[in-house]
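Revision sheet: structure tokens.
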Amino acid sequence: MAVMVREGRGQLRQRVVWGPRVIAKQIGIAVIGGLCFAMLYDTIMNLRHQFVLNTSSSVALGLYQRVNTPIEIGSFVLFEPDPETLAWHTSLTGIEGIDTFLKPVHRRGPLTICRAANVLLLDAAPLPASSLLPGFIADGECAVYDAQSLFMLSTRIPNSFDSRHYGPVSLSQVKGIYASAFTLD
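Predicted:
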């Protein structure tokens, strides 16, 4: 609250007096401001994955919008790879700062994956060849993955960095399912 006080030679000056009402008002303004910021931040974070701009050539270049549909063969899924996969991707491409991949689902689990003479077999069927060798399974080995697994495969370009290299993706890594809103193809 502001009051007028006489100072020195009789001059009136305005002075702020911090009483309980003024302090309560200031605290109320700070709380309301904090709540507004929290709501805005929450809105921005919720919108973060509503649209994805894909610049990778393994999926059509363009804008993808999140959809509320079940995961099916051919669905575009945004997922968060494990740190080792991200480090491997960065070492191959030199691109840093990528934290999610957008890839099409090729098959849902349960899955059996074998590697024989550097050919990957998914449920006994050979997968398209790639110049990159798989990093998740050794030659001559087989592995079984549960129903919570997705095998991501992009045949758009021969050497797409997909499940042929880093293995199946767990449903727990999925951030959303997307459909193309606008693509350049």
